[in-house]
Design a protein that fits this description.
The structure holds two protein chains of two kinds.
Chain A lengths: L12 H5 L3 H25 L2 H23 L4 H25 L1 H8 L2 H6 L4 H31 L8 H29 L1 H9 L2 H6 L11 H9 L1 H13 L12 H33 L8
Helix pairs in contact in A: 2-7, 3-4, 3-7, 4-7, 4-8, 4-12, 5-8, 7-8, 8-9, 8-12, 8-13, 11-12, 12-13
Chain B lengths: L21 H4 L3 H20 L4 H25 L6 H34 L3 H6 L4 H29 L12 H28 L7 H12 L11 H8 L2 H13 L13 H6 L6 H33 L9
Helix pairs in contact in B: 2-6, 3-4, 3-6, 4-6, 4-7, 4-8, 4-10, 6-7, 7-10, 7-12, 10-12
The chains are: A mainly alpha, B mainly alpha.
């Protein structure tokens, strides 16, 4: 059987430990692939997620569609809800499977192995993000396709490139935020679990998941400057429903794309920094493993 | 036994010697009561002992209040915010939904908590306590948290969101009996979810929310069922949650908007009435709740057997 690991004779342990940039990169990429693998493969091994994570969330999105229908809202609002419902998949994934994950790994005894392995821990987070993205994209696309067909949502897109760029930037910023939260949750321990609960409905509210965030006034503006989900969703709605009478109160999509660029850079750098600081702190305080292991 | 040792009361051999088979049967109701109270206390400790009361309070009410605010904003956005009857309708529906989410997730998360995080499920399972009783006790704490969230959401609705509420108009007896029957139905759905979580992997954390989200569609929580296609309305009429919410609405706001009836509803076409009478609502709640409870017990016992058979009680998963 072939193996990627080749014995290379060296004259000293120092020389053996002195990896070339290529070796480091190859190992980190393998770590990304290795961490993404269980998430992607798990999708095919246990099929229950198709029912619980695609069909049922679609029904939950439908509930908000029917609220607008009951109120005889303009048709574009149905589209706003459908787009918001699709994007919830990514937020839930970031909260449940990114932010909490390092703490989970700690509970399961994997965290100390991650830190002991010869790789950058950021590659583990990146692998989690890649695997999570595949899972959430499946759900988001399915919800979007079914709801668009079933509820007759019609998109009017003038700037395809900007829309795709905003979507991509939103995801990178979101998963960057997830990486920051993962480090923080690692330190907060059990409080993190409860904080997860706080970060679902309240974030849906301030992000304008079911209505244009501009209607929230100051709270909406604050959300746009802090939460990638709020700014990304608002920009995507403006771009995907270009013909709709979109409520005023938020910047144009170009400005929001720039906000997302800034958020992406900030969250990725912050993730790197918090991970390093909190890893050091966790090592000093003995928080990388749980007591009973 | 040396003279210094104190005999342990109740564990000594019977006077006639030998083995007393009655011991293996336990003390019946007294054992159940004790298991339930201990697990309820444990559940409450696990829910509440991680932080100070203020933070715990914020955590408990933030979710239901946000859910209600989302719906109120939706009304405002399309200019229906002036309809105070509809505002009361959505505030009550979303407040009560806090019970549903808590009740369903409490039991399911107890299974996942004990199996995946604390890895205690197998020990709890082999203890003399009935496993289902332990789960019910653990779930009770979360129902209490949900109840607190629902009460605060209603209070915010009345005080800040202009929901018209007159305590003297409330039908208190109906409120009490419907609430009791409704909570029993919620617990039954929670048992089904706990049974499902015995079979699934760690990612099942989000399943209770997903199920609650789907039931949200058919239960008339925030919009009248009449806007749904007839087959889905029929599904809603078979759900105890629909009748529970309808009963609570009728008890708290007599004569207000109905989720079950109304022009063009399946209920109106079947029964010939515009809105269900409160007795009919209660009977329908009892009937659908009884079916849900029996089904839940059957599903749980089947899942329990399968979990033992396949060694799922001590599995830990992850991805």
């Amino acid at each position: 059987m072939s193996t990627p690991y080749v014995f290379r004779p060296t004259t000293s342990p120092q020389e053996a430990a002195n990896w070339s940039p290529r070796q480091i990169l190859a190992t980190d990429l393998r770590a990304v692939r290795g961490r993404a693998y269980p998430r992607v493969t798990g999708m095919f091994r246990e099929k229950s997620w198709v029912f619980f994570e695609i069909l049922l969330p679609f029904l939950a999105t439908s509930a908000f569609v029917f609220v607008y229908r009951a109120l005889q809202a303009p048709p574009e609002y149905i589209g706003f809800v459908v787009l918001g419902g699709a994007m919830t998949a990514f937020w839930l994934n970031v909260i449940w499977m990114m932010a909490q994950q390092l703490w989970w790994e700690k509970s399961q005894g994997n965290l100390e192995l991650y830190f002991a392995a010869p790789m950058n821990i950021m590659s583990v987070l990146f692998g989690m993000a890649v695997g999570g993205f595949v899972m959430s994209s499946t759900r988001a696309v399915t919800v979007l396709l079914i709801a668009t067909t079933l509820y007759g949502v019609s998109f009017a897109i003038d700037q395809w490139f900007l829309l795709i760029a905003v979507f991509g930037l939103t995801l990178v910023a979101l998963y960057g935020l997830g990486m920051v939260l993962a480090s923080l949750f690692l330190m907060w321990g059990r409080e993190a679990w409860h904080l997860t609960q706080l970060l679902i409905e309240p974030v849906y509210f301030v992000s304008g998941m079911s209505f244009p965030v501009g209607r929230l006034g100051v709270v909406g503006s604050l959300a746009i400057s802090i939460l990638p989900l709020a700014v990304g969703l608002d920009a995507m709605r403006q771009l995907a429903f270009a013909d709709a009478a979109y409520p005023l109160g938020t910047p144009g999509p170009q400005v929001e794309a720039l906000i997302l660029v800034a958020m992406t850079a900030f969250f990725l750098l912050a993730a790197r920094w918090t991970l390093r600081v909190l890893e050091n702190r966790a090592r000093r305080e003995g928080r990388l493993s749980v007591r009973w292991q | 036994m040396s003279g210094a040792e104190v005999p342990i009361t109740g564990l000594e051999s019977p006077r006639w010697g030998g083995f007393d088979p009655a011991r293996t049967r336990g003390r019946g109701a007294a054992d159940i009561r004790r298991s339930f109270s201990v697990s309820a206390r444990l559940g409450w400790q696990m829910e509440a002992n991680w932080t100070d009361p203020v933070l715990f309070f914020i955590y408990s009410v933030a979710k239901p209040v946000s859910s209600a605010l989302i719906l109120v904003l939706m009304l405002e956005v399309i200019g229906a915010g002036g309809r105070r009857d509809y505002r009361a309708f959505v505030v009550i529906g979303s407040a009560l939904w806090s019970f549903v989410i808590s009740g369903i997730s409490g039991l399911a998360w107890s299974v996942l908590d004990d199996r995946e995080r604390y890895r205690m499920l197998k020990y709890v399972y082999v203890s003399p306590s009935d496993f289902l009783v332990v789960l019910l006790g653990r779930g009770l704490a979360r129902v209490a948290v949900g109840g607190m969230g629902a009460a605060i959401t209603l209070a915010i609705g009345v005080v800040l969101l202009g929901v018209p509420f007159d305590p003297s108009a409330v039908n208190w007896p109906l409120l009490v009996v419907v609430m009791a029957a409704g909570i029993a139905s919620i617990v039954a759905i929670g048992i089904v979810l706990a049974a499902i979580c015995l079979q699934t992997r760690q990612e099942a954390w989000s399943y209770p929310e997903a199920v609650a989200g789907a039931l949200f569609l058919v239960s008339g929580a925030v919009f009248p069922l009449a806007v749904l296609p007839a087959p889905i309305q029929a599904l809603g009429l078979l759900t105890p949650l629909t009748w529970w919410i309808e009963g609570i609405r009728e008890a708290m706001f007599p004569g207000g908007l109905t989720a079950v009836g109304g022009p063009g509803s399946l209920f109106a076409s079947l029964v010939g009435q515009e809105r269900p009478h409160e007795l009919l609502t209660f009977i329908a709640l009892l009937a659908t709740g009884a079916v849900a409870t029996l089904a839940a017990i059957a599903v749980f016992r089947t899942s329990d057997r399968r979990a033992k058979d396949r060694g799922l009680l001590d599995q830990t998963t992850g991805s």
